[in-house]
Amino acid sequence: MVSVYIIGGSGYTGGELLRILERHRGVEEIRVSSRQYVGKRVNTVHRGIEGELTFEKYDKRVAEGCDFVFVCTPHTKAMEYVAELSTRIIDLSADFRLREVKTYEAVYRKAHTAPELLREAVYGLPEIHRKEIKRARIVANPGCFATGAILALWPLVRKYDIKEVIIDAKTGVSGAGREPNEKTHFPWANENVIPYLPVGHRHIAEMEQELGIKVFFTPHMVPMSRGIETTVHALMNTEVEDVKKAYEEAYGDEPFVDVVDWVPTVLEARGSNYCKIGGFSQEEGRLVLFSVIDNLIKGASGQAVQNMNIMWGFKEDEGLQQLPLAP
Amino acid sequence: MVSVYIIGGSGYTGGELLRILERHRGVEEIRVSSRQYVGKRVNTVHRGIEGELTFEKYDKRVAEGCDFVFVCTPHTKAMEYVAELSTRIIDLSADFRLREVKTYEAVYRKAHTAPELLREAVYGLPEIHRKEIKRARIVANPGCFATGAILALWPLVRKYDIKEVIIDAKTGVSGAGREPNEKTHFPWANENVIPYLPVGHRHIAEMEQELGIKVFFTPHMVPMSRGIETTVHALMNTEVEDVKKAYEEAYGDEPFVDVVDWVPTVLEARGSNYCKIGGFSQEEGRLVLFSVIDNLIKGASGQAVQNMNIMWGFKEDEGLQQLPLAP
Amino acid sequence: MVSVYIIGGSGYTGGELLRILERHRGVEEIRVSSRQYVGKRVNTVHRGIEGELTFEKYDKRVAEGCDFVFVCTPHTKAMEYVAELSTRIIDLSADFRLREVKTYEAVYRKAHTAPELLREAVYGLPEIHRKEIKRARIVANPGCFATGAILALWPLVRKYDIKEVIIDAKTGVSGAGREPNEKTHFPWANENVIPYLPVGHRHIAEMEQELGIKVFFTPHMVPMSRGIETTVHALMNTEVEDVKKAYEEAYGDEPFVDVVDWVPTVLEARGSNYCKIGGFSQEEGRLVLFSVIDNLIKGASGQAVQNMNIMWGFKEDEGLQQLPLAP
Amino acid sequence: MVSVYIIGGSGYTGGELLRILERHRGVEEIRVSSRQYVGKRVNTVHRGIEGELTFEKYDKRVAEGCDFVFVCTPHTKAMEYVAELSTRIIDLSADFRLREVKTYEAVYRKAHTAPELLREAVYGLPEIHRKEIKRARIVANPGCFATGAILALWPLVRKYDIKEVIIDAKTGVSGAGREPNEKTHFPWANENVIPYLPVGHRHIAEMEQELGIKVFFTPHMVPMSRGIETTVHALMNTEVEDVKKAYEEAYGDEPFVDVVDWVPTVLEARGSNYCKIGGFSQEEGRLVLFSVIDNLIKGASGQAVQNMNIMWGFKEDEGLQQLPLAP
């Protein structure tokens, strides 16, 4: 049984962590901090959470005393917490995802104040780094777009000699966080498709680091609450059956990645920690394939719990068995 | 450990039963029939279900050999299955919800072919009939609108002398079932509010039977996939704190009914077996209050599993602990 | 040809006015002020507006020189502008809708600083007050919920002796305005039904003033961008054909109110200035009927232009001929 | 003043034609046929249409006597009507869009029964073929995806030497037509992204014919009723200002194409005949740009009316002046 501490738990990733950890059979104590809501019951913010759990003021000693600390603060803020704690940490921000300080600083335009920990931290995508995660003290939980894209491409880049790929992603609005703004205002986000960054999205650096190829990436926001659909366009010629086989081999034993015979859709992953990959199609000159995930679960808090399970030795799917909610 | 059999499992209630029962720790075997999809893998229809489970042709002897049979066929068809089986049955159709044959035949405009079982069947709303459910062989699982409405009114009618009430309900589109039609076609259901039966909805008979008062009821379809919001307008004067207290007393020990301090919204129940009741407001001449449920869970398959748990002696929330998915 | 001035044109009602007036054949000049966006092109805010129109700083003399001033500021602010201008004014705020100062101050909890103009102002619902509108200098444009409710009830209260009525309304999210907040954040408003004021909505005072009966009113927000559906529950017995006839007689010559043979839905009004009324149903003890409007058009800016047309002598539907956009 | 005849007017394109033509000041008579709804009032199907217009049985002589015939039947059926009529025809199906019989038959897998008319027909994209449209008797109205894609690429392929391009499109559900099916069932289409054809969409042939380059194209269905967003990924290096200039020059005089300074979104075109193009972005190795249209207007019926206006000599925007409806 473990105790966990969530720093900055009032956002969506905090809410999802609470939703999952409240039902995790290996968790005996949960504490959660928030600057804005100190002293307020958690369910005044996350209405679905049952019980009396209350946001508290962050207290380093309390956090230090817990088996796991989940850091849910924005990037640049997260590294301060990580630097001062010596317990097991799963950081949901971007601060420890990039191995090179230089890359981090180029992408996030801030100095990294704990560069010595960058090498210690493990990129928390279990399908690629399970062994390192098992031994890690600090896990950098991947970005939501990065999760969808890397899982969609990993078997391909291992097997084929690829230099570059085009990724066109579509995300639900919760990907923009819990803070209301003009773009997430219902009458604007609804009945709309909003391409929100033609080039230069920050998750590209994670993708390129893990995949080792050039990634052209453009994300779009579509009118749904949750989910990411990732379409991969690779200008290459393959035997599509070989491609599929490579994916089945790579993910055959994975508890949360399904290689499917059809074109997967977001609803097949929504509400679950699953990633579904399929729709492998080759035409003269282009290979196309698709992945879907729930951006808040496999793309954030579910994957964080999966990492905790691996680090502690719980069954990897503990707390995460829930099947997709469709419709 | 129990074995379960689902008759007619290709619809939404069947899909939800499978989603829940696949993760129920007391279920060791699931079988599922469908006329339309015999021989097809379940996840060709319910994409989120993992594994090899396959629709089979209905076989009375196999069903009879299971500990529980869930009947998910349309009303009038369901009674045929119920009549020929002697195992424990949870019927999700309307066929055994009304105690009086006459009422059934007036509402459903069909002869009831198993009237002798009507008295044996128990109306499966645990908050009112838990004791009878425990001893029952046949449980008639309540209608989705009836669940939202009866739970919203039960403590009120017990405490106050009320003759009639107005209920205005709003449902997600999944309430119309899995069969596509003009009303559920996305471009018509989206950006729309569709009042779909001004008067005379069939669930009114259940509500009046259980509540013992006259119910004026009008349901509306709104552009969401899941959920029912029920607004109760009662032309009466009360002390609103007394009303709230009556609800807290009635539901204080209930695992799945929360009386809340605010006006509940559908997202607070979505994806869970919870019913949230709140927003108690009194103005001169009218009392208003609200309930929310997930129409496919507390309004159908979740409640069916809750009934199974009670009948068999499982922990009542086994398989149903999942917290609401919001957003 | 007229010149018009819009005060506070950066919100949704301002945007809709611009959309309509840009295509109105009797309007030769449009000017628009905004405190927040002075000097910015209108289409940086209202992206669909073509051309070079730019927000300017409010200038009393310029406004005064226009044939019509549309006031789109919040209530309590609007009365200041109205008080200082002597040209024709259509006020889209609530400041001049209520005839009695006392009522205004009770409802809006602010002192009314121009009470002498309250009697001069005409309530701008053409179907009831067309004659007075024709002669008016100041028109108080009705609230969106009030428009849907009063049109739904006017013929009924004229013909029958009714003391009270229950109205349950469902609105799209644009009714909450253009300013983002927690309730209008897409992931919260989507897949949700949010009852947003059990009792005491401010538009009730307008409804009671115009209808002369007690109104019990509860509005709900549902996941659509535009539209209001109004369900009227009247505890009374009628001959439903007589009711329908009363509506057909009342609205037979109205350019924008259709009495229909079916249950109308929001899509049948969306994008247009029409109000559709139908679904007349009588059961023992209750009469039910429904109206639908586009909250931003007939419920706000379209009706404002209709009032302008009446005041100036344009064809009443000039600029408003557009048929509903469905889907 | 012209008379028009719509063949097969019960679908979405028929409904939109009616909505537009009813308000077109140059149209004095509209007749509309439907096999399924003969004798029924048009507004039993298209609820927003006012008045008494009634679906009639197709009568060749009546159609022949009209100035314009709009053919809204499915492809392969349309060519039969086109072949037997000698009046002006605007065919909204795919039957006359491809200049080569061979291509048509390869793409649509049917023999073309009127190949001699293929050369007579003009591809009805006014921005490219205005002159030929003016003289044409038969206009083949472009496909919705083709319109969004060709307009997004035309200036680029004229100026730069490009061999191939990747297009990733997102469409609203109305693009799938008015017939309900599993994919358009609200609970499936909602909260989902559905890639509906990885490779081989039929509109590709139109795009390649008009653009003269290889087109890699994958469309996705997202949860909105209307609109197409088209994202162009071109693996090339340019000066982005030069690219933009090329678009401004190409479309500077176009009444319905706006080159904008920002990344356009679907709401900026919805409900209008406009196409907005923008978001020009160059990174090392890839140029990205975006277009948005309303699939039922510029992508279908609005463009058809634009073609009629050009053919007859009406003002090109007659009936189409309506600005986008946002929200």
Your description of this structure?
The structure is a homotetramer of 327-residue chains. In chain A, β3, α3 and β4 form a beta-alpha-beta unit. Chain A contains eleven helices and 13 strands. Chain A has two domains: 119 residues, NAD(P)-binding Rossmann-like Domain (Rossmann fold), CATH 3.40.50.720; 151 residues, Dihydrodipicolinate Reductase, domain 2. In chain A, the strands form two sheets. In chain A, strands 8-9-7-10-13-12-11 form a seven-stranded mixed sheet. The two termini of chain A are 34 Å apart. Chain A has 327 residues and is α/β, with parallel strands linked by helices. Helices cover 31% and strands 21% of the residues of chain A. Chains in contact: A-B, A-C, A-D, B-C, B-D, C-D. At the A-D interface, β7, β8, β9, β10 and β12 of A face β7, β8, β9, β10 and β12 of D.
Give the structure's gist in a few sentences.
4 copies of one chain form a homotetramer. The first copy, chain A, is α/β, with parallel strands linked by helices and 327 residues long. Helix content of chain A is 31%, strand content 21%.
